[in-house]
Specification:
Layout lengths: L1 H21 L10 E3 L6 H21 L4 H27 L2 E3 L3 E6 L3 E6 L3 E9 L8 E4 L5 E14 L5 E9 L4 H16 L1
Parallel strand pairs: 6-8
Antiparallel strand pairs: 1-2, 2-3, 3-4, 5-7, 7-8
């Protein structure tokens, strides 16, 4: 039952993201400073949508003699197109956000992690293309790449997509303007320290 609830909540977030994207609005930015992370992914997602549309058409032709199966597969295919579009929209409308006392790290509708600035021991621009799985690390690559590394003085709790809790001490993420994000976090820490 919990799994069904988690999946339904995720799907709802994707649909809300589509509506926000259509209305040119962003989620949860408020008075904070937003840092996008999906620049350059539009062509990849458009390619996925194109492939899904070709598959939808092909299956319609192949299954035209079986109307019930055709209807079921058509609904699933159209839902897949909606899902892919929702994922791209979530990347666009849910950016990383730096507000007065925390950095909100996000990755589409899957991850939303609030890191207090006083727990960030080090922040640096670091481009990485390989990410080993390790306890205490959270890697959020876009296009298989991260560009910012956050080392934390104390762990922060992170809940996975299915609700498993883990303690995170290192966060690697991607930002379109990684150097500016690093400068902004360092400046916010300096202001907070005074």
């Amino acid at each position: 039952m919990r799994l069904a609830y988690t999946l339904a909540r995720h799907e709802l977030r994707l649909l809300v993201s589509l509506l926000l994207w259509a209305g040119r609005r962003r989620h949860g930015v408020g008075g904070g400073r937003a840092f996008g992370y999906a620049r350059g992914q539009g062509a990849v997602m458009a390619g996925f949508v194109f492939v899904c549309m070709i598959e939808t058409f092909t299956m319609s032709v192949l299954l035209r003699d079986w109307p019930t199966v055709h209807a079921v597969v058509l609904v699933l295919d159209l839902y897949t197109v909606l899902f892919v579009a929702g994922l791209y929209a979530a990347w666009q409308v849910r950016p990383h956000v730096l507000d007065g006392d925390a950095l909100r790290v996000r990755h589409a509708a899957h991850v939303d992690l609030r890191i207090p600035l006083d727990r960030i021991a080090a922040v640096r621009h670091e481009t990485r293309s390989t990410h080993e799985r390790a306890d205490g690390e959270l890697n959020l690559p876009v296009g298989s790449q991260t560009s910012v590394t956050l080392e934390l003085s104390e762990p922060v709790p992170h809940f996975t997509f299915l609700g498993r809790r883990s303690e995170v001490k290192v966060v690697r993420l991607h930002a379109d303007d990684a150097r500016e994000l690093v400068r902004a976090v360092q400046a916010a820490q300096a202001v907070k320290a005074t």
